[in-house]
Structure to design on (333 residues):
């Protein structure tokens, strides 16, 4: 029995394990970014680095108290110091902005799956920290003119109710497209913004990957991000809204890897999983039936991409196995 009087549950064990993987990965990424960051960005990156390091220490202590083996995650061998920077002009904060969105989603979910007080408070604190860093990153990028705000719209002056099912149709009786509502615009904007950053990440990763199969896979990821951006951007253009775009955050021409192939594949896997969740959310909250249909087609492509990545990771021994439930079936044999 632990000092808290209650052992951790299977869900708490799983969520601590996943957090350990994500946090050890992100501090390796941040080490490269901090090495090349300007003074404005370095402080913000260092703040998140310190927070991630503290979280790793807390998880390690809990695992040791519970008599559980501490995961490996990602170590110093997964980042190479003293190499040229892989991404240019504010990409470090753009990446931080994207990853804290992932963390906010994960940790708020983990809060609802935690029952022991100390672990629940741990994920509550992580959620608050990721929200604070995301807000700082947002304001930083806005001040630098890098982040594009979603479209401004006229404020509604009266409450209306949907009168018939034509509202759910992409076209009305006059073959005119029903303009997107603000919920649909916000979800599309979020998806495009995330994929633009993800596309540059895939370009940079593909340039430096040592394993040829990994390189080809990352090129596929780049093309998939571009397809998502183009397909969803067309919905905005139909409503006379320009999709978000930025001049900043491009991959450099460096061919020297700052990260291991293992780390780059895990980072890609994490963002792909997040993309599937965001895609499902977009489809669920869209009231125009052509948008969920498009989301479903894209989800199929994203799922196939994720499956292919998993196969590569297993083939190369890069997929650390999560804690396993005891196989009770063996007792009946």
């Amino acid at each position: 029995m632990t000092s808290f009087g209650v052992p951790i549950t299977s869900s708490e064990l799983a969520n601590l394990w996943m957090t350990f993987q994500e946090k050890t990965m992100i501090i390796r990424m941040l080490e490269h970014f901090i090495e090349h960051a300007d003074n404005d960005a370095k402080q913000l990156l260092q703040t998140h680095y310190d927070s991630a390091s503290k979280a790793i220490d807390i998880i390690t202590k809990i695992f040791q108290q519970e008599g559980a083996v501490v995961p490996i995650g990602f170590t110093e061998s997964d980042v190479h110091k003293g190499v040229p920077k892989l991404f240019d002009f504010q990409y470090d904060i753009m990446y931080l902005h994207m990853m804290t969105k992932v963390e906010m989603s994960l940790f708020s979910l983990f809060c609802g799956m935690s029952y022991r007080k100390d672990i629940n408070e741990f994920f509550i604190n992580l959620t608050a920290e990721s929200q604070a860093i995301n807000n700082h990153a947002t304001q930083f990028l806005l001040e630098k003119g890098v982040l594009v705000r979603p479209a401004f719209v006229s404020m509604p002056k009266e409450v209306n109710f949907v009168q018939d099912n034509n509202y759910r149709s992409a076209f009305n009786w006059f073959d005119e497209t029903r303009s997107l509502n603000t919920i649909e615009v916000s979800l599309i904007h979020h998806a495009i913004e995330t994929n633009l950053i993800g596309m540059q990440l895939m370009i940079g990763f593909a340039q430096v990957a040592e394993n040829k199969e990994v390189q080809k896979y990352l090129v596929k990821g780049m093309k998939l991000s571009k397809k998502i951006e183009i397909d969803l951007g067309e919905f905005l253009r139909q409503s006379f809204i320009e999709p978000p775009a930025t001049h900043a955050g491009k991959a450099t021409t460096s061919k020297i890897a700052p990260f291991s192939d293992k780390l780059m594949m895990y980072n890609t896997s994490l963002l792909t999983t997040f993309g599937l969740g965001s895609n499902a959310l977009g489809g669920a909250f869209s009231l125009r039936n052509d948008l969920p249909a498009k989301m479903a087609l894209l989800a199929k492509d994203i799922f196939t991409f994720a499956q292919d990545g998993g196969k590569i990771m297993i083939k190369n021994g890069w997929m650390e196995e999560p804690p396993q439930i005891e196989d009770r079936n063996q007792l009946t044999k």
Observations:
- The chain has eight helices and no strands.
- The two ends are 31 Å apart (CA to CA).
- The helical segments are 10-36, 39-65, 91-111, 117-143, 182-208, 212-238, 261-285, 290-315.
